[in-house]
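FORM 7B: Structural annotation worksheet

SECTION A. Query
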Amino acid sequence: MAEITLKNLSVRFGAFNAVDDVSLTVKNGEFVVYLGPSGCGKTTTLRCIAGLVKASSGDVLFDGVRVNELSASERNIAMVFQFVSLYPHLSIKENIVFPLKARGVAKAQIARKLDWVTEIFKLGDELARYPSALPPGARQKVALARAVIREPAVLLLDEPLSAIDEQFREEMRWELGHLQRQLGVTTIYVTHDQREAMSLADRIVLMNNSRIVQVSEPDRMFFEPIDVFAGQFIGSPSMNLIDLAPVEGGLKLGDGDVTLTALRDRLPAWALSSKRPLKLGVRPLNVHLTDDADGVAIPVDDVFSVGRERFFSFRIGDTIHQGVDKRRSPSSSGGSVHFDPAGLLFFDAATGRRVDAEVAA
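SECTION B. Predicted structure
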């Protein structure tokens, strides 16, 4: 296992900064997920760690040792890509042990390692079959077994589940997390799928525009986003963002006449007296359509169900927002929109950074 440290890492392709001054330490045995939209720099960072892309500046260190000049084969890493690249003419057993045979490992040692990964990945019934006979999820599991059998110091995974059908993806996601904990190998995983990041990661590294936006545990990333981008990228449905203005009696929402009057005594004093333009961030799970009297009279556009949850949409100005319908009867009419004070976040309208009492003081 290894600790990976990136120090002021940058990768430039001509005038384009693919990775811009990234610093991070991945602890020994940690499962870190790089998350972000397409083109944000996460895969280039992974390939730089692997030695497939050369850093333009900055350093990559394994256990404190600079490895910038080492090739991928010299870094003791294993990498699994989005599209499985198994040898179709070899059996599953032959595919798995291929890296060991290529290195000239003794047959007895190969047999011991094959027994080990076969047990871990539960592949005993598949060894004599060929890749074409396996479903996509099983083929990706074989690719992982082939990577792990080398006992790498670092396991690098680039969108390994995105090419798998949804019916297999959930199962593979659970198995991958379980296997990583069992193996204890330092793992860096790249994805644009927030569900994968939230369910797998010890820590998430959220990237945008070639830079790190936030590094934190999944729960903290969800409940304490550092800025507007983090708040909206994490969560489905996305966080509601509403312009705020302090007025007599509370905080006015948007350009209309809607004011959080009923919540005045439960809103932070610094927000009520703020001189800077603010945006209110509130997740749909903290906005309820309710029969209670402490809500806000906002016209509701639509009520709809997703599985067991009932959602509703409402409009402030020209923007449509979403919340959860918690009325006692789905057929009841009317109701009002309640904002849970504990779930309200405030962002600087100019910078997009989250603001709290300490920052506002």
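SECTION C. Observations
Residues 4-225 form a domain with the Rossmann fold fold (CATH 3.40.50.300). The longest strand covers residues 16-26.

SECTION D. Sign-off
Analyst initials: ____
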